[in-house]
Amino acid sequence: QVDLVESGGRLAQAGESLRLSCAASAHSLRTSIYGWFRQVPGMEREFVASIRWDDGGTEYSTAVQDRFTISMDSAKNTVYLQMNNLKPEDTGVYYCALDPTFYKYTDYQIPSSYIDWGQGTQVTVSS
Q1: Backbone phi, then psi, for 88, in 5-degree steps?
Q2: Cα diameter, the chain
Q3: What is the predicted pLDDT for the residue at 72?
Q4: pLDDT for position 120
């Protein structure tokens, strides 16, 4: 099991930018895939973005595409989520997730595809 620690969440104004970080406790396998999800009370956890460790391939939800960018620093075992032009509907707890063995036929937009999860970091966007 890999421990994931998210950071960077805070209260922000609409239109601002934030960068979230997800630090992994162990070296990431080249077969790893990381995802960012968000959740608000009473709602299911929602896919935001994912990145494959071997080739840096990314995927985004339509809600954040063109505003958010997921990236990684292999030397630091850290994944980032750069969030620009924040909107109130981006409010939620943001979770980092990991599947250490990427499989191309798995749907990585669903939470159950991931093995390890962080505790989350709160992002609140006011209008």
Answers
A1: -55, -30
A2: 40
A3: 95
A4: 97
Residue with tokens 């890999």: 2
Tell me the mean pLDDT per 10 residues along the chain, length 127. Answer: 94 98 89 96 97 94 97 94 98 97 92 96 97
User: Would you put residue 42 in left (φ > 0), alpha (ψ -120 to 50) or beta?
Assistant: left
Phi, psi of 29 (to 5 degrees): -70, 150
Residue 76 to residue 117: CA distance in whole angstroms: 18
Query: Which pLDDT score, from 0 to 100, does residue 26 have?
Result: 85
Beta-carbon contacts of 68 under 8 Å, excluding residues fewer than 6 positions away, are 48, 49, 60, 81, 82, 83, 84
In the 8-state DSSP scheme, what is residue 50? E
